[in-house]
Amino acid sequence: MGPDQLTIQPGNPSRLGAHFDGNGVNFALFSEHASRVSLCLFTEDGAREFTRMALPERNGSVWHGYVPGLKPGTLYGFRVDGPFAPERGHRFNANKLLLDPYTRELHGRVNHDPAILGYLPNSPYGDLSFSEVDSAPHVPKSVVSDPDSFSPDAVTLGRRWDGTFIYEAHVRGATMLHPDIPDDVKGTYDGLSSQPILDHLTRLGVTAVEILPVHAFTSEGALRARSMRNYWGYNTLGFFAPEPRYFGPSGVFGFRAMVDRFHAAGIEVILDVVYNHSAESDHLGPTLSFRGIDNASYYLLLDGQPRYYVNDTGTGNTLKVRHPFVLRMVMDSLRFWVQCMGVDGFRFDLATTLAREAHGFETGGGFLDALRQDPVLAGVKLIAEPWDVGPGGYQLGRFPPEFSEWNDRYRDTVRKFWRGDGHSAQDMGSALLGSADLFDTKGRQAWSSVNFVASHDGFTLADTTRYLQRHNAANGEDNRDGHHSNYSDNFGVEGDSDDPEINAARHQRMRNMLATVFLSQGTPMLLAGDEGGNSQNGNNNAYCQDNPVSWIDWTKLDSDLVAFTAALSGFRARHPVLNQNRFLHGAKRADGHPDVEWRAMDGSPLNWRDPGLSSLCLILRGCAECVAGNAMSDVVLLAFNREYEDRELQLPPSGQKIWRQEIDTSTAAQTAREITTSATRIPANSVAAFVLHQPSAE
C-alpha cells in the first residue's frame, strides 16, 4: 500500500503499542504533557520515512490512531511535540525519532551520532540548547509484529522453590568458546539452549537458569568512545523486545524456542530484568524513547531542579515506577514475558529502586503491591537484588514473602570464614541455616535467601583464590571501577601460579566454598563456569568485556571440579533436610530430637562466644514446626574444619544405624564410606557431610 493510500482514523486507547487486528494496525502511546504525537512510517530497509501522520485522538494521556490496510512488518517510530523546557523537566523534540516503548521487535541499532541528542553538544548552553537535526538515520525503528509470533499461550514449569538450584549465565559468555556448539549459534539464544549446554546443566542438576539481561539494550556513549560495548546488558532500550544481538538462525523466534528447550529438559528460565533505569542516561544523554515521549512522567527528577535526574541507580537516571503509566508498562512487560515467552521468573536488578516511594523504601508500595496481586505473576519466581545507591538503599531481608533475595552478606560471610577472618564462624552459623536473622519474619520461608559466593558482578569463584586486588585496567577506567572489598585470598601469589602446593590450596578453597553453598539452607546459585574454576584474570567488573576475558573457555575447565560440583548438587537433591521450606531453630521434633543441633568436634556443645572459633558441626533433621518436617527421617551431619591441622570428629550415637560419609572436600573425587567407629578424622581446611544410614543386610 502506497503512502497516498494510507489513512488514519481514531483508534482504541486500551492497548498501548502497535497491534495488528487482521485489517490494519492500532497505535496507542502514553504522553501526559505532549501537544501532538506523529506516527512515522519507514521503508522496508528503515532508511527513509515515507509518511507522517498525527495520531488523531486522545483519551486522557493516551494518544491513538488506526491505520487500515497496514501490515505486520511495518517499520515505524513516533515524533512527539511539546515544550522543550529542560529547566521545567520537559525535553520534547519532534526532530528526534522515538522508539515505541511497547515494541516487541527492533530494526537497526543505535548509532551514537550527535544527532541522537536533543541538544547541541557544542553549544555553550549545553542541554538547554535545542537540536534540529533529524535522528531517524541513527536510531532503531519499531516493528509492527505479527500477533501469531507472540501468542499468549506459553506455559511455565511452575517448579517449587524448595529444591531450586540456579545457574547464572550470559548468552554469549556461556556459548562463544564452547567447542561443541556450532559456530552459527554461538552467542545466541539457540546456542544457550543447545544440547551440549543442556547436557552440562542436567549433569550439574541445575533446575533454573538465570540469564543476564535480554531486553533490547544499547551501549553507553562513553563505552563507544573507548571502542567498547556494554556486555552485561544493564542498559535497557526496550522492555518488550528480545535483544537482537543474540539472534541466531531462528531470529526473534529463537528466544521462545530456547525457553521451550529448557522446559523440555526440566529447567526453568529466570530473566534478570532492569526496570530501574533506561539507556537514556542523565541530562546529557540521548533522546531515544522515554525522554522524548514524556520526560517528566517517565523519570524521577530532582525536586526544585527538574532539569536534572534522580540517580538512585548510579546510571544517570531513575524510572518513575510510581507513575501509573510507567508502572503499567512494567507490569505489561512482565506479563508479556510470562504469557508470550514462557519465562518462569524474574530477578529484579536494583529492586530497592522499584520499591522506593516518595518517602523511601516501602514494602507496601505501588510496585510491590501490583506485583503481588497480579494473577499472571503469582505463580512465577520473584528475586530481588535488595540494594541500590540511593538513600536507604540497602534493604536485604525486607522484601515481601513472595520474594527471594540475593544475599550478598552470605557471600561475604563464606569468603571471610574460609579466608580465616576472626569472628566469622559466628556469622557462618547463621548463613548455614538460611540467614534466619534476616529472613525469618512475616511467614517468609528458608528459600528466601539466594546463597552464592560469586556472581557476574565481582570476582569469579576461582579469582577469589587467586587475586587480592581487582585487575580492571582493561575496562579503561584506570582500575577505579568494580568492588574494592572482595574478601579474597591469593595464597601468596597474585594471579596464576606454577607452585603445586598453592594450586592445591586454591582448589581446596574452591571446593570448600562450593560445598558451603550446597550444604546451606536457602537457594543455591552458581555463576556459570565456577563449577570448573573459570577465571576472568582478576577482572571483577567485566561489564564491557565482550571477549575471552568474560567468555567461559570450556576447554580449560577443571573436569574434576565439575564432577565434584555435580556430586554436591546430587547430594543436596537426595537429602530433603538441606532443602527445607521452614527455618530451623533447634525445636524438639515429635521423635524427641532437635531439628538442628550444634556441636564441637569433640561432641560438646559449641561455644559461640569463642572469638577463635574455627570449626563447627551441626546435625540437621526435618523442621519441628511443620508436619512435613516431622515426617522426615533424613539425618545429615555437617563438619566444617577451618583449622590448619586435622581434627578428630566424635560422631553422635547412631543407634541401629551407622554414619556414612558422602562428602569430603579434601579431595575432588567423592566416594561414600561407612564409618564403623565412634570417631573419624576431618582433614585440615575441609568440609565433610555424613548421612545416618541403615546398613544393608549381609
Write the layout of secondary structure elements.
Layout (H helix, E strand, L loop, with lengths): L16 E4 L3 E7 L5 E7 L6 E6 L2 E3 L2 E7 L6 E7 L2 E2 L4 E2 L14 E2 L33 E3 L22 E4 L19 H4 L2 H10 L3 E4 L3 E3 L3 H5 L10 E7 L10 H12 L3 E6 L16 H9 L2 E2 L2 E5 L14 H16 L5 E4 L2 H5 E2 L2 E2 L4 H8 L7 E4 L18 E4 L1 H12 L4 H9 L3 H4 L9 E3 L48 H20 L3 E5 L31 H16 L21 E4 L15 E6 L6 H5 L4 E6 L5 E4 L7 E7 L8 E3 L3 E4 L3 E8 L5
* Count of strand segments: 33
* Biggest β-sheet description: 8 strands, parallel, barrel
CATH superfamily of the largest domain: Glycosidases
CATH architecture of the largest domain: Alpha-Beta Barrel
CATH class of the largest domain: Alpha Beta
What is the CA-based Rg, rounded?
A: 27 Å
**CATH topology call of the largest domain:** TIM Barrel
How does the overall form come out from the CA principal axes? elongated
Strand order of the largest sheet: 12-13-16-19-22-23-24-25
Give the helix/strand class.
Answer: alpha+beta
Distance from N terminus to C terminus (CA atoms, Å) equals 84 Å
Helix count?
14
